[in-house]
Amino acid sequence: MAEMMALLLSFLKAIGKYRWYAVAITWLVAVVGWTVVSRLPNDYQASARVYVDTQSILKPLLASMTTLPNTEQQVMFMRRTLISRPNVERVLRMVDLDITAKTPKEHEKIVDELMNQIRIIGTERDDIYTISYNNPNPKLGKDVVQSLLTIFVEGSFGGKKQESEKAIQFIDDQIKMYEEKLATGENALKEFKIRHMGLLPRQGGDYASAYGDLSEKISQARLELLEAEEARNAIKRQIAGEDMAPVTDTAERAIVNPEIDGRISNVEKNLDQLRLQFTEEHPDIVAAKRLLGQLEQRKKDEAKKVRAADPGASYSPMLQQMNVQLSVEEARIASLKARVGEYSSRLAQMRSLSTQAPEVEAQLAQLNRDYAVNKENYEKLVQRRESAKLSGDLSTVTDMLTFRVVDPPSVPSVPAGPNRPRLYTLVLLGALVAGLGTALLLSQIRPTFLSQTNLREVTGLPILGSIGMNWTDQQKVRRRRRLYAFAAAVASLITAYGGVLAFTVFRQA
To answer: Which of 403, 405, 411, 456 has the most CB atoms in a 10 Å sphere around its CB?
Structure first.
């Protein structure tokens, strides 16, 4: 400890020897430093606060209809990418800072300075964001903050709109592709059906079911043919074993004329339909009655002619009726035989195609399956396109994301910097360090022995004694004056520092 005190004392003595150099350097550094600080331009901070409302009543209402945009993630992304190079370059163009750059290097320098000076402060929990920027020109700082606020609001909508448009464009391209596939599939189905018209299964069944239905129909037709043949044979046996009987007047009605009976039946049906729509005096109903009477009269005349031409016909009405029934059964048997023959030929044709029909059915099923898959995907894409359009409209038109400017861009009248009092203090401290350092450096360049101990340590010789300085009165007065002058120089430095601080505070007020 004693050695340290001795070393410190020796340093102080060395500095004291060159104290006037220290004072001069201190004054010089202080004056230069204070001058530089006083000429520093004022730094004004422009700022704005905005509140982002990400809660909307449309979210629960449209949750099941479309894909809702993630507004929280969207705002967070915009906050993190707001101070990006493209956005900052856009700000330069909006505030006309780009025209001040004459070279690409100067342009890059301005962009880098802006990116370093712009600040965005806020939290996703409160949804309140503060945009600030410092610049010596308060109007320029305000314009920069206003431009950033505009980009922040527009970017939150524009990015989502662009994404929605890209998604819709992609879906439209896919829809066109599937439309082409559907058209190709429809043409393939049409050509396949035309080429295999006779082998295609009917609606609701395949080859096996059609074959089974045809077999059942031919069995039913054969059974009906057998029944008709038995009925015909029974009538023949009755006609062969029955005696002739005279014909009465009432048997006149039993004379069968298929042509006239058919026309009478048609006229009666037509007359019934007309009576549902018109009265009895309607001309159509009157004409139908007249025609019906004419046909009945014609039937009676034909019956009389038949009796006159065939005297035996008036012999037995029962025999005539049985002959009529026999002719009906013969006609029915002929039609059933034709039906059985047709069914048999169809069944034989299906048997001949038994190897081709299943393959055709399999190919048709494959074509229908591919067409159904493409149609299902096409319908889903159409629904997704409408959902994407609705989602894009929600992001751009509705109030899914609301921006409320809490504090518009403003610049306070008092500059935010530089902090001149602190800089003046740092300059004073630096000047003192420079002065003391200069004095210490000079003492090391031109060293002197300040005590017997230092002389003995350096030379290694014993010190026999020392001679003290005997100051005269005149020298004492000079020393005292130099001491007063040194104190006055130090005091004036402190006073100048206080004056500079007072002037700074007064000007800011």
So the answer is: 411
The single-letter code of the amino acid at 134 is: N
Alpha helices in 96-247 (DSSP H): 104-117, 138-195, 207-241
Whether residue 413 contacts residue 91, with contact meaning beta carbons closer than 8 Å, is answered with: no
Q: How many residues does the chain have?
A: 509
Amino acid occupying residue 321: Q
Q: Given strand 44-53, what is the order of strands in its sheet?
A: 119-123, 128-135, 44-53, 402-410
Contact at 8 Å (CB) between 493 and 27? yes
**Whose CA is closest to 442, among 18, 20, 29, 19?**
18
Here the tokens at position 430 are 């630096």
Cα–Cα dist 144/133, whole Å: 7
Q: What pLDDT, on a 0 to 100 scale, did the predictor assign at position 72?
A: 56
pLDDT average, residue stretch 21-47: 87
Least confident of 71-85, 131-145, 440-454, 493-507: 71-85
| 472, 476, 477, 479 alpha-carbon torsion, rounded to 10° | 140
Q: Distance between alpha carbon 170 and the CA centroid of its chain, in Å?
A: 11
> Minimum mean pLDDT among 50-54, 343-347, 429-433: which range?
50-54
- Res 111 pLDDT > 70: yes
Residue 344 CB partners (closer than 8 Å, separation 6+): 218
Closest CA to 18 of 450, 443, 366: 443
Identify whether the C-beta of residue 247 lies closer than 8 Å to the C-beta of residue 317. yes
- Closest by Cα among 493, 443, 446 to 25: 493
Q: How many CB atoms sit inside 10 A of residue 357's CB?
A: 21
pLDDT of residue 442: 79
Answer whether 111's CB lies under 8 Å from 88's CB. Answer: yes
Q: Output the six-digit token pair for 22.
A: 């220290």
From the CB of residue 177, how many other CB atoms can be counted at a distance below 10 Å? 14
Q: What is the pTM of this model?
A: 0.43
Q: Identify the residue whose tokens are 């090391």.
A: 444
How is residue 194 written in tokens? 């035309």
Q: Which residue has the tokens 């048999």?
A: 344
Assign 3-class secondary structure to 367-427.
Answer: HHHHHHHHHHHHHHHHHHHHHHHHHHHHHHCCCCCEEEEEEEEECCCCCCECCHHHHHHHH
Q: Are 85 and 428 in contact (CB under 8 A)?
A: no
Residue with tokens 């342009």: 107
Beta bridge partners of residue 47, listed in sequence order:
132, 410
Please state, in angstroms and as integers, the Cα–Cα distance from residue 468 to each residue in 172, 221, 452, 465, 475, following that order.
108, 160, 12, 10, 15
Q: Write down the pLDDT at residue 244.
A: 41
